[in-house]
Specification:
The complex is a heterodimer of chains A (about 400) and B (about 400). With about 400 residues, chain A is α/β, with parallel strands linked by helices. Chain A contains 15 helices and five strands. Chain B has two domains: about 240 residues; about 120 residues, abc type-2 transporter like fold (3-Layer(aba) Sandwich), CATH 3.40.1710.10. The chains are: A alpha/beta (about 400), B alpha/beta (about 400).
């Protein structure tokens, strides 16, 4: 009973002291406050225009008929494309592209209109710059639309011509094709990427803050300028006390991230907030465990920058946002499975964007709890057998130095 | 001006790297690991076999034919058919499929009677890449089905089969990507993310090693060794890093264009020159940041912020000209932006270096930055104060 009381008191003491330490450490506060508050806003502002529109193109028209001009007009009328002008030949067009004035060249061959009127296929080519996938995709969508629109017109005319009796058949409506984008109805870029990025920011701000705090614990008090050690009698009590402290700091930025940022920037929000919060509980526990592991490995305050900032890119690849997780090679799939953020992003996107209920992401939820258990144990092991001995060594060293200096004075 | 100090600092610079496993991780392990990750993950170029499902409410020979056509597509992994929209939507919410294709009730009968039944397809655009792949497959299946129908109708009203082809697709625009005709996704990721990581690591490692002189109280000794010349001290100290980064950047080039066979349509010389100038520009930018904010932790924070933001602001995925006007100037403060533009011009576009002249000139602007802050750094090195 007594032990239990010490344990609880230890948690309480550690919690209070840790709070004081963190609040007075500007470096850590930046990670806890600035990162989750400002980063998502900056990112959302960058991607908020969502769609790539009005990309300039140039036309090389060898046909010069009303039919070819109609084709150019229709393409120009598309949201995605914008006609800069006509070029006399491919060389001139190529020069415009090389000089970064246009990103595509539409070449219409001689006899285009004649072919169409004769019931043959009027073939044209659109050469596009491939430096950005989004520009290419815009042209692809635009040309598909143009082919459908002009096609339907010509079809009606042609059928009228060859079989006047069939005028009752409107070919355009013979079989309409509908396409619906789910989750991100506009197919906008911000609505797609930001939802996952928000979760990634949540993880990284916790881990960077914990890593910096951990690095400070390995350093001599004389270097750091203050004593960041904060230990209870039992290692788990220390860990729980610190975790509770970090959690109570991150809870407000966390809600800002998953609720208010999507609200402000009008991202998809199909989820139920309390379910999302419940979903993120094991994720946060797993991240805290991961943080305790990192603390043992980072031996200087500033080293966390060198070893952890860049991992964001690795997580971005492994979490399924850039490359779907089902298509990962087995080795990387296994790595991805052991990272809490990949499950959290997968589940959160489906809850937030596709409107899945908590029970529909049960697989991800269970995997998050397994991750929480695994990282929690790993965190304990590292704290107990790496961090604690290192701290004790530092304290002993500090004491002996003090004794030496006292002895010298005497 | 004696060379002796230069040599001693240069040796010291090498030793500082050799003695710090932390720097090996930052300079070698991370960039190489990212190359390994990208090359193994994006080996196929595109994620094939996107899971999808068909809602067949019709259940006729025609609807089964459509399903079969869809199942035969290379890019889709058809998980069978379901009976209702609700079932399909639930599968999508559970992450089992990334989209579905809806064949409505009485599809065949309505089609024959000319009542114009609609084919619909749904793609989960919360997952951009598989969603887009599925969109393409679904769209071509729908158009293919429609074409077959139009042909049938046209023949039934007496159009001769030779003329029918023009009826199905009277106008065709074939889109041809210059430089990357197979749409290899790795070309985008490899050519942008790896230089981006290089910039991030150069910024942070440079600032870290500059700040450490203060933290470990060695800055005064460094100035002494250089005979009081900060310029000599910095050049001698950072030159070993320049060599490592440049070797790494050249390795990256050969890895991208020789090993991964990504398009390299231009002149190797200009690409190599671009990488060398890129490394120097990143180092100059790092010195500038450290000079403005000599607090090591704070300047590292700024470097991390800029380094990570540059993946978005350098326009790797979203073009800067479509960003808000207020943000656009920030796209041009990163060496990575110019590196990306030079790659797009020379390696991908196969253009003459004349068209990239502005980007190369922009690198040179960065080289002036250290001179602006040199007095500040010198002052700080003389009276080092470490703030945690």
């Amino acid at each position: 009973m007594n032990k239990f009381k010490t344990f609880l008191l230890g948690i309480y003491d550690v919690y209070l002291r840790e709070f004081k330490l963190v609040v007075h450490d500007l470096g850590i506060i930046i990670f806890f406050a600035f990162l989750p508050l400002a980063y998502p806003v900056i990112y959302s502002l960058i991607y908020n225009p969502e769609l790539v529109k009005e990309v300039p193109f140039v036309v090389v028209d060898h046909d010069r008929t009303s039919g070819s001009r109609e084709l150019v007009r229709t393409l120009d009328a598309c949201d995605e494309a914008w006609l800069l002008g006509y070029a006399s030949d491919l060389n001139e067009a190529r020069k415009a592209m090389d000089s970064h004035d246009v990103y595509a060249i539409l070449e219409i061959p001689e006899g285009f209109s004649r072919d169409v009127e004769n019931g043959e296929v009027g073939k044209t080519v659109l050469f596009t710059d491939m430096s950005l996938l989004l520009r290419y995709r815009g042209f692809l969508v635009a040309t598909t639309g143009v082919m459908q629109a002009l096609g339907a017109e010509v079809q009606t005319r042609a059928i009228d011509r060859v079989a006047p009796l069939a005028e009752t058949i409107a070919v355009d409506n013979i079989m309409p094709i509908n396409n619906v984008s789910l989750g991100d109805p506009q197919s906008g870029f911000a609505s797609f990427i930001m939802i996952g990025v928000l979760i990634l920011i949540l993880q990284q701000s916790l881990l960077l803050a914990m890593g910096m705090a951990g690095g400070a614990r390995h350093e001599k008090a004389s270097v750091v300028g203050y004593n960041p050690h904060n230990n209870a009698r039992y290692v788990p009590a220390t860990m729980i006390g610190q975790s509770l402290c970090y959690l109570s700091i991150i809870v407000l930025p966390g809600i800002w991230l998953i609720h208010y940022v999507p609200m402000i920037f009008e991202f998809p929000m199909q989820g139920v907030l309390w379910q999302e919060l419940l979903f993120l509980v094991p994720f946060l526990i797993a991240v805290l465990g991961m943080g305790f592991v990192i603390q043992a490995l980072v031996t200087e305050r500033e080293a966390i920058f060198l070893v952890w900032v860049v991992t964001t890119l690795f997580f971005l690849f492994l979490c399924g946002m850039i490359w779907p997780r089902y298509a990962l090679p087995p080795f990387w799939k296994a790595v991805s499975d052991a990272i809490p953020v990949s499950w959290a992003i997968e589940g959160f996107i489906r809850m937030n964007s596709n409107g899945a209920q908590l029970w529909q992401v049960s697989h991800e939820y269970i995997m998050l709890w397994i991750n929480a258990a695994g990282w929690g144990i790993a965190g304990y092991v590292m704290q107990r057998w790496v961090m604690l001995p290192s701290v004790i060594k530092l304290i002993k060293k500090g004491k002996s130095q003090q004794q030496v200096s006292i002895a010298e004075k005497n | 001006m004696s060379n002796k100090g230069f040599k001693a600092i240069w040796v010291r610079g090498w030793l500082q790297i050799a003695r710090r496993p932390l720097l090996w991780i930052a300079m070698l392990v991370f960039p190489l690991a990212l190359m390994l990750l990208i090359s193994t993950v994006l080996e196929n170029g595109l994620p094939t076999k996107v899971p999808a499902v068909v809602i067949d409410k019709d259940g006729t020979a025609l609807s089964r034919e459509v399903t079969q056509t869809l199942g035969g597509m290379q890019m889709v992994d058809l998980k069978g058919t379901v009976n209702s929209y609700t079932d399909a939507r639930q599968m999508l919410q559970e992450g089992k499929v990334y989209g579905f294709f809806l064949i409505p009730e009485n599809f065949e009968a309505d089609l024959m009677a000319g009542r114009g039944p609609a084919l619909s397809f749904y793609t989960n655009m919360s997952y951009f890449v598989p969603g887009s792949m599925l969109y393409r497959t679904f769209a071509s299946t729908a158009i293919y089905t429609k074409a077959g129908t139009v042909l049938g109708v046209a023949q039934s009203v007496g159009v001769n089969p030779d003329e029918a082809e023009g009826l199905v697709q009277p106008v065709s625009i074939s889109v041809r990507g210059i430089g990357n005709p197979t749409l290899n996704y790795g070309v985008y990721i490899g050519n942008s993310f790896i230089p981006g990581v290089l910039q991030l690591m150069i910024l942070m490692v440079t600032i870290f090693t500059l700040g450490e002189e203060v933290k470990k109280h060695t800055s005064r000794r460094l100035l002494q060794m250089a005979d009081g010349s900060l310029l000599r001290a910095l050049v001698a100290k950072l030159l070993p890093q320049t060599i490592i980064w440049t070797v790494l950047a050249f390795f990256m080039l050969s890895w991208l264009y020789r090993y991964m066979h990504y398009p390299m349509n231009g002149d190797w010389f200009w690409m190599c020159l671009s990488e060398l100038m890129y490394v120097l520009a990143c180092q100059s930018l790092a010195i500038f940041i450290y000079g403005i904010v000599p607090n090591m932790r704070f300047s590292l924070s700024i470097a991390a912020l800029l380094g990570i933001l540059s993946f978005s602001l350098s326009g790797y995925s979203f073009p800067p000209e479509r960003m808000y006007p207020a943000l656009q100037p920030f796209c041009w403060i990163f060496p990575a932006r110019y590196n990306f533009l030079i790659y797009a011009d020379i390696a991908l576009g196969g253009r003459h270096v004349y068209y990239s002249r502005v980007w190369f000139a922009a690198y040179c602007v960065f080289y002036f930055l250290p001179f602006i802050v040199a007095p500040l750094i010198k002052k700080h090195y003389r009276k080092p104060v470490y703030t945690p």
